[in-house]
Amino acid sequence: MNHQHPEPYWRKDTHLQSYPKLDRNLKVDAVVVGGGIAGITTAYFLAKGGKKVALIEADRVLNGTTGHTTAKITAQHGLIYDELMQHFGTEYARHYYESNLKALDWIKEIGKGIDCDLREQDAYVYAETNEYLQKVQKEYDAYLELGIDGELVETIPLDIPIKQAIVMKGQAQFHPLKFFKHLIESFIELGGQVFEQTPAETIEDDTATKVITSSGYHLECNKVAICTHFPFFDGMGLYFTKMYAERSYIIGIKSEKKFPGGMYINAEDPSRSFRSVVQEGGELILIGGENHKAGQGKDTREHYEALEKCGQSVFGDTETLHRWSAQDLISVDKVPYIGTLTPKHPTIFVATGFKKWGMTTGTLSGMILSDLILGNHNIHADLYAPSRFVADPSIKHFISQNVDVAKHLVKGKLQIPFKSSGNLKSGEGGVVWHEGKKCGGYRDTDGKLHLVDNTCTHLGCETAWNQGDLTWDCPCHGSRFSPEGTVIEGPAQKPLPSIDE
Q1: Residue 352 and residue 231: Cα distance in Å, rounded?
Q2: What domain of life (predicted)?
Q3: Peptide bond just before 270 cis, omega within 30 deg
Q4: Which fold has domain 415-489?
Q5: In angstroms, rounded to a whole number, what is the distance separating the alpha carbons of residues 142 and 86?
Q6: What is the reported pTM?
Q7: Pairwise pLDDT comparison (176 vs 183), residue with the higher score
Q8: Which of 36, 135, 355, 408 is deepest in the core (most CB within 10 A)?
Q9: Is the CB of residue 226 less than 8 Å from the CB of residue 337?
Q10: How far apart are CA 217 and CA 257, in angstroms?
Q11: DSSP letters along 219-261, please?
Q12: What are residue 481's DSSP bridge partners?
């Protein structure tokens, strides 16, 4: 496979500015933790509302899930509306649609005035089997009842044989880094401050609300918005029991066959999505899918190979120019958590669990959180309140997710390594024996061996080696670590302990 650019397509020639590390104590009106969609939009709206705001990011802004997206801006979140109507009622589903439509319209309004490759597109969900044909037809019935601008069609412009598809009109796509780069610059013009390489370690909210960084500095404020993909501070909200992490994969291919326009996703599993972007030198087709729970499943390289085979079956001879993966958090009822962290923490707010639709729901988070912090009424806030826990289907999913966690907790403890650390080849990693002890090993391309205790520092599950991304992934709650053990993604906050050779 030829992968000239292992980084996501979006990073190429975007020229994101670097921001300083926090090197002092600070007092502001609000602190926003997390430099992705939700964090940037929340900070922007708060600054527009006249607040003195600091945005802090553990790594670089726009380097996490936002930088690894397929960048569809749509209120069509798979086959969601019939499911929402069945479980929660028509008004609930209508609020979900209208709230995401507001986010979509806002992005389109701002995007038309800046250089971010914004293009309006129709979005399709298609069925390839009779089983999912019925589900697509039921989803169309939901569209009709909710007044969604959609259509049921027998064929789609993409050269794929289908049973039927549902199309949602007037959706969009864009270059996410260009768009949110503009938003960051606007935030700074409004007086906002951005600090990178500034991990937040905890929050104190006894006498005053303070965000404490890993370097020991504190940011005193009136309100905190946690927009760190997985909340770095739980506050006994038990978010790790109410969400699970799912990985998906994207490749960018070049083909002589022209892409017909539109954005497409199948209804079946494994998932497949298609859209194109215009870049210097021609058109790039993005193919995504191959979803699975983080830390579980086959060798991740096989997922990329499956997407390449899919691309060849649809577009003929292709060349893979980019490949990357993303990790998404899914709540037990498939609706994001946006609002007060817990009833006992009225000054701390959270936005998480965007499933795979963070372009709209992340933007919506900024709208809702800023309204709550500014004291404005938001008619959609109750729908997304983290304190909700609806019996159907939340309890069923809550139980199944935690049974799955228990299964992998035990399974990992019983895993027997098949290799010793000395047998690892250059660029290879895995669970190995080293001096009579089980541990995680990785031999880098220079031949150096990196050994860690591969037990996740969150709740003790055994992490699995991800050969495609060269990371240690936790199958229980989705924490990810570098080969050397550094935390890449929570809920874990402490690194995997290193083991001396």
Answers
A1: 7
A2: Bacteria
A3: yes
A4: Rieske Iron-sulfur Protein (2.102.10)
A5: 10
A6: 0.84
A7: 183
A8: 36
A9: no
A10: 55
A11: EEESEEEE-SSS-S--TT--HHHHEEEEEEEEEEEEESSPP-S
A12: 472, 487
In the beta sheet, which residues pair with residue 337? 352
More confident residue, 68 or 174: 174
- Beta carbons within 10 angstroms of residue 151's beta carbon: 13
Give me 147's structure tokens. 């007044």
Please, what is the angle between helix 37-48 and helix 358-374, to 10°? 30
Q: Which amino acid is at 392?
A: D
CB 417 within 8 A of CB 440: no
Q: Per the structure block, which two tokens stand in for 326?
A: 């993303």
- In this structure, are residues 409 and 476 in contact, taking their beta carbons and an 8 Å threshold? yes
Nearest 5°: the CA angle 425, 426, 431 is 55
107, 73, 80: which is closest to 96 by C-alpha? 80
Residue 143 and residue 80 in contact, taking contact as beta carbons nearer than 8 Å: no
Out of 187-196, 201-210, 225-234, 415-424, least confident range:
415-424
Which residue type, as a one-letter code, is found at position 463? Answer: T
Do 246 and 238 meet the contact criterion of CB atoms below 8 Å apart? no
For the stretch 354-396, pLDDT in tens is 988 999 999 999 999 999 999 999 999 999 999 886 555 555 5
| Residue whose C-alpha is closest to residue 99's, from 341, 379, 329, 331 | 379
> Distance between CA atoms of 373 and 346, rounded to whole angstroms?
10
Work out the average pLDDT over 422-441. Answer: 90
Identify the residue whose tokens are 């412009």.
157
Amino acid (1-letter code) at residue 170: G
242-254 mean pLDDT = 89
Which two tokens mark 75? 């209120």
Candidates 303, 156, 321, 174; CA nearest to 255 is: 321
Radius of gyration of the chain (CA): 22
**What would the 3-class secondary structure string for 321-373 be?**
EEEEEEEEEEECCCCCEEEECCCCCCCEEEEECCCCCHHHHHHHHHHHHHHHH
Crossing angle (nearest 10°) for helices 130-146 and 90-111: 80
147's CB contacts (< 8 A; 6+ apart) are 94
Identify the DSSP state of 65.
Answer: G
Q: Give the 3-state secondary structure of residue 441.
A: strand
Name the residue ranges covered by the structural domains of the chain: 415-489
Amino acid in the structure at residue 486: T
Q: Which residues contact 125 (CB under 8 A, 6 or more apart)?
A: 76, 78, 79, 136, 139, 165, 166, 265, 266, 267
Q: Which residues contact 162 (CB under 8 A, 6 or more apart)?
A: 126, 127, 128, 154, 155, 156
Q: Is 170 left (phi over 0), alpha (psi -120 to 50) or beta?
A: left
Over the stretch 237-246, which tens digit does the pLDDT of each residue have? 888 888 888 8
- Neighbouring C-alpha atoms within 13 Å toward the C-beta of 310: 25
DSSP single-letter state for residue 424: P
Q: Around 423, how many Cα atoms within 13 Å sit in the side-chain half-sphere?
A: 10
> Measured between alpha carbons, how far is 194 from 55 in angstroms, rounded to an integer?
5
